[in-house]
Amino acid sequence: MNFDMNIRSNVSYIKDKFCYDKNADIIIREFENKKGVKCFLAYIDGMANTIGINDFIIRAIMLNDDDDLNIFATIQYNNVKLETSLDKAAASILLGDTLVYADGDIKCAIVETKAYDKRSVSSPDTESVIKGSHEGYTESIRTSITLLRRIIKSPKLCTEFVSVGKINDCKCAIMYLDDLTSDELVKKVKFRLNNIKGDFISGAGMVEQLIEDSTWSLFPSILSTERPDRTAEYLAAGQIAVICDNTPFALIMPISLAVLLDSPEGNQQRWQSGTFSRIIRTFAFILSVLLSGIFLALTCFHHELIPSQLLTIIAETRRQIPFSAVAEYIVMEIFFELVREAGLRVPNAIGSAIGVVGGLILGQAAVEAGIVSPVTLIIVAISGIANAVIPDYELSSGIRVLKFGFIILGGTLGFLGIGAGIILVLTMLAKQSSFGVSMLSSSAKQNSTNGNMVYQRPIWKQELRAFSLKPKSLRQQPQISRLWAVMEDDDE
Fold it and tell me: Degrees (nearest 5) of the Cα angle 186, 188, 194?
């Protein structure tokens, strides 16, 4: 619906739109300028800068007596745009902007007067690092975009906005480097976001589930990060970031399994330390998935593979246990998950205390009471520690679920079940893709800004971007990036 040239009609529409008689937050102010032209403005109290509205909008219009000067031109605000649609103007009011209309006009002015409270920039809670930036995203989409633009100072960094959710109109920013990112990839991301239908989309977590390729997989196909520096690194590799309002995370796409196992510190570490860390994380990934299942397979079916002394110790510790080995492991894993969830949900002041009490005192009491064996407690603890090493929370959560499947397979079918489970997981990963890139694709990491899955290449050897991303520019640095080294050799 477009603006009517009658001010009364437009005021009535805004009042009806915002339930003015019942809504104490919506402010509608009617006034005249020196020439007698009737005007009105509308904004939401608490979301707009009322001091600026009074001083630089109302005062500026009321004191103007220049016949040749348009009323909207007297507004002393930096960001003012004209709008002919009443519906779009009403949507802008919900974002904290102010609508200004003058009688007899077919358009209004939308003034950016946002001034609602927001959390200040702080260190990321889920991706802490030793070396690297200590700034994390906030719930304000504008602040998050600014943090990213401070790192990537390129005019080719594009930001396109898409709104999802009929009720809350959640704004999402699609960010990419126009001279690097594949046009096909940009088109695919925009198509999926534009075709999300739903009444309420609260943030990045729901958006991720609505646009991902593999809904039924335990492994995420989109990376969620709280760090602007990490986002900038992937944008420079030719990937896309989606930042949603009210969520301090950015969604990175496409990715592979290697990206999910990558540390936020990335190339801030020297290549030797980075390679060692990647080996440890890969080992922790395998350990978290398979350790409990393999140990059950050994103790239940393949005794000949266990050294006799260790087998004797295991048999002695299990002599008084009233449960089967499978039931014992499942109960202990559930108990471990209860302790983990309790530590996350309770207030921080008592969260650590619950972890200590649950993990040490109750575990020790269970062993002394003969309910569980000490070996079981050790295996469950090692498996839980290995899961904590995995840097991506969504991946670690999927592994926690997958681990129960391998416990059942190992405890009922032995190594045959473990082998079948591994084949099933690899098949699932091979079929899974992230916006056209296979989750097992080595090229999604290799030759990109982060090296490959296990081996981190020295910075000066990372010359090419990932082939699978189809970037517009494959080379990210010249073959000889350390020119000084060549020049010193020539001098010698």
Answer: 100
Among 39, 23, 248, residue whose Cα is nearest residue 144: 248
114 touches 47 (CB < 8 A): yes
Q: What is the pLDDT of residue 121?
A: 86
* Rounded distance between C-alpha atoms, residue 206 and residue 164, angstroms: 10
Long-range CB contact pairs, 439-446, < 8 A, 24+ = 439/219, 439/221, 439/255, 439/256, 439/257, 440/256, 440/257, 441/256, 441/468, 442/256, 442/258, 443/467, 443/468, 444/254, 444/255, 444/256, 444/258, 444/259, 444/468, 444/469, 445/256, 445/258, 445/259, 445/262
3-state secondary structure of 181: coil
Q: 168: exposed, middle or buried (C-beta count within 10 Å: 0-12, 13-18, 19+)? A: middle
| Residue reference for tokens 């207030």 | 347
Give the ranges where 180-324 is alpha helix by DSSP (H).
Answer: 183-194, 204-211, 228-235, 257-260, 271-300, 308-318
* pLDDT recorded at residue 490: 66
User: pTM for this one?
Assistant: 0.86
Q: What is the mean pLDDT of residues 85-113?
A: 92
Give the C-alpha separation, 488 to 492, whole Å: 6
